[in-house]
Automatic annotation (TrEMBL):
<dbReference type="GO" id="GO:0006508">
    <property type="term" value="P:proteolysis"/>
</dbReference>
<dbReference type="InterPro" id="IPR029058">
    <property type="entry name" value="AB_hydrolase_fold"/>
</dbReference>
<dbReference type="InterPro" id="IPR001375">
    <property type="entry name" value="Peptidase_S9_cat"/>
</dbReference>
<feature type="domain" description="Peptidase S9 prolyl oligopeptidase catalytic">
    <location>
        <begin position="406"/>
        <end position="604"/>
    </location>
</feature>
<keyword id="KW-0031">Aminopeptidase</keyword>
<keyword id="KW-0645">Protease</keyword>
<dbReference type="Pfam" id="PF00326">
    <property type="entry name" value="Peptidase_S9"/>
</dbReference>
<keyword id="KW-0378">Hydrolase</keyword>
<dbReference type="GO" id="GO:0004177">
    <property type="term" value="F:aminopeptidase activity"/>
</dbReference>
<protein>
    <submittedName>
        <fullName>Dipeptidyl aminopeptidase/acylaminoacyl peptidase</fullName>
    </submittedName>
</protein>
<dbReference type="GO" id="GO:0004252">
    <property type="term" value="F:serine-type endopeptidase activity"/>
</dbReference>
<dbReference type="InterPro" id="IPR011042">
    <property type="entry name" value="6-blade_b-propeller_TolB-like"/>
</dbReference>
Length: 607
């Protein structure tokens, strides 16, 4: 057994490579580590680049390096990594897409525009005093520049905000919505915009969510991922000449993809508690690999940078901390090339995938973390956010303040369940929670606890539960349904779906989807939302509950925590509310993360 707070403090020193970009010749990799761009050789040598704070790295097709520096500056370094050119755009750069013709598409967010919970649920910085907001006034825009020219040219998408985009031969393929808030992301469409003519053509409408639009070489086809929420889903292929849009068969839970040529695609995504990837030719999957581990990427989803048939990404397993790694597209044979976190490897704990049966016999799986394979300690269940998200095999699972690994070191048995609604099991499994939030998924979670008690892994007198975001909701909801948990911790959770439906920056997008259209403007809708809201079911709660929240969170606003605290207090439940200033949907300040870790571990009574 190790001191969990010492383990948590050690994990704060983990160096995570972001924005991994493989050079066109496959010989080196660019990335961002702790806000500084680096270039790594395949032998592991690592060279930091000067120039202050960096956010994104991209190689141009000719081997020059493109950087996003600070919030609104683009820079290009020559082949010798010397400064060559820079330009600025208005607002905050969110993505850069270079093309072979020497142009770059920039997706940039207006000051004051809303970020979703995957990006801390905060507004993009805006110094305005007073802050003024009008519908359609703070968008995510697309602009393009020719390298060497510092004049951005906006691609006008009338009344639309752009959530994701690709760029090829003067055309942008964009996921857009008419609602500029993150709620709009839940009602998207796929548009093709021609920068030369100004024409905007809608290719695809869907009730689901879209990400990773990709234009094929030659301009005759496009693909996009269609799924739930963050997004892991099926690949939709659009014929740009006929307008026909249809899914590529026998393929699901894709999170990233790209064209190798006009007939061939690579892909990657989730597979159970691991990842998969491979190659698609002429609409057929011709090679597929799976691996037990986690590929890092944008928004926490698996993504790759590809050159030829070689891929680069951030890769971690239960035994190995995250590092830059390379693999063949067909083999998925990940080989770590850096050694940023070697000193943390001894903190690894025993991790295994376990499976149990849901109420209807459907197999449900999750991860079990223990200091040793025979260790029997207090059981802590950590519910993941989403709900369409998952726990994947990782060295130190990051969600919920990265507490899974420290809790295991403290002697706890940690269950990370993937109930109905989770990614990694296909669209039918993910959609099984729609209209049944807090029902189908909570039942799956509780049956996982039953399984561990029945097999002697868990003591029924030493059970606790915690989670962040939707996992926070599920934790608060669980203790209204059962008294079996002795303690609970609710981090950035939802307590009242009625107030969420007007206060969250996801309101009107997330909630109609997951609550199957329940409308708070109708008596029936209000009744349905209240029926699944913890604050209206406080009377029977006996579980001591710690509530942790950031005061700037706009995805699950602070009022959610305050409502839960008042409801629990009025019902005589032992509770405590801890609010961290300057924080959004997840804690980022080191002192706050450390303080929250101490409070949660103590509250759960593991030490």
């Amino acid at each position: 057994m190790s001191d969990p707070l010492e383990v948590h403090a050690a994990l704060a020193g983990l160096r995570y490579p972001e924005s991994v970009a493989l050079h066109p010749d496959g010989g080196r990799v660019a990335c961002v580590i702790d806000g500084v761009a680096h270039v790594a050789g395949l032998d592991g040598t690592l060279t930091p680049l000067p120039g202050g704070e960096h956010a994104l790295t991209r190689w141009l097709p000719d081997g020059r390096l493109l950087l996003a520096s600070g919030s609104h500056t683009l820079r290009v370094l020559d082949a010798g990594l010397r400064p060559l050119w820079q330009a600025e755009v208005a607002g905050e750069i969110e993505d850069l897409v270079p093309d072979a013709d020497g142009t770059v598409l920039v997706r940039h967010a207006d000051p004051g525009s809303e970020r979703d919970g995957s990006h801390l649920g905060l507004r993009v910085h805006d110094p305005s005093d007073p802050f003024v907001r009008t519908p359609g006034g703070r968008l995510r825009r697309l602009s393009w520049l020719r390298i060497g020219d510092d004049r951005p040219r906006e691609i006008v998408l009338p009344g639309l905000t752009a959530w994701d985009a690709d760029w090829r031969d003067g055309r942008a393929l964009a996921v857009t919505s008419s609602d500029e808030t993150p709620a709009g992301y839940y009602r998207p469409r796929l548009d093709l915009a021609d920068a030369r003519t100004g024409e905007v053509r809608t290719l695809h409408h869907t009730p689901w969510q879209l990400s990773r639009p990709r234009l094929a070489p030659g301009g005759r086809a496009a693909v996009v991922v269609e799924g739930l929420s963050i997004v892991s889903g099926r690949v939709m292929h659009a014929d740009l000449e006929t307008g026909d849009v249809r899914p590529i068969p026998d393929l699901d839970d894709v999170t990233d993809l790209g064209w190798l040529d006009e007939r061939t695609l690579w892909f990657t995504g989730w597979s159970g508690t691991g990842v998969h990837g491979g190659v698609i030719e002429d609409g057929r999957v011709t090679s597929r690999w799976t691996a037990w581990g986690t590929l890092g990427g944008r928004g926490g989803q698996p993504s790759l940078s590809v050159a030829g048939r070689l891929a680069a990404a951030t890769w971690e397993t239960a035994e190995r901390p995250p590092e830059i790694a390379v693999a063949s597209l067909e083999g998925g044979d990940w080989r770590q090339i850096t050694a940023l976190n070697t000193d943390l490897a001894p903190l690894a704990v025993h991790q295994e995938e376990i499976t149990w049966s849901g109420h209807d016999g459907l197999p449900v799986s999750g991860l079990l973390l223990r200091a040793g394979p025979a260790r029997r300690g207090p059981l802590v269940v950590i519910a993941h956010g989403g709900p369409t998200w998952l726990w994947s095999s990782a060295f130190a699972p990051a969600e919920s303040n990265q507490l899974a690994l420290p809790l295991a070191h403290a002697g706890a048995t940690v269950l990370l369940p993937n109930p109905r609604g989770s990614s990694g099991r296909g669209q039918a499994y993910a959609r099984a929670v729609i209209g049944m939030v807090g029902d189908a998924d909570l039942t799956d979670l509780l049956r996982g606890v039953d399984h561990l008690v029945a097999t002697g892994v868990a003591d029924p007198e030493q059970l606790s539960i915690m989670g962040l975001s939707y996992g926070g909701y599920l934790s608060a909801w669980a203790v209204t349904r059962t008294g079996r948990f002795r303690a609970a911790a609710v981090l950035s959770g939802v307590s009242d779906w009625l107030s969420f439906a007007t206060a969250s920056n996801l309101a009107g997008g997330f909630d109609p989807l997951y609550h199957a259209g329940a409308d708070p403007a109708t008596p029936e809708g209000r009744e349905s939302l209240a029926a699944r809201s913890p604050v209206y079911h406080a009377a029977g709660v006996t579980t001591a509950t710690l509530i942790v929240h950031g005061d700037q969170d706009r995805t699950t606003p602070l009022g959610q925590a305050e409502q839960l605290y008042r409801a629990w207090s009025a019902a005589g439940v032992r509770t405590e509310l801890v609010v961290y200033p300057r924080e959004g949907h997840e804690l980022v300040e080191p002192a706050h993360r450390a303080d929250a870790a101490r409070r949660v571990i103590s509250w759960l009574g593991v030490t």
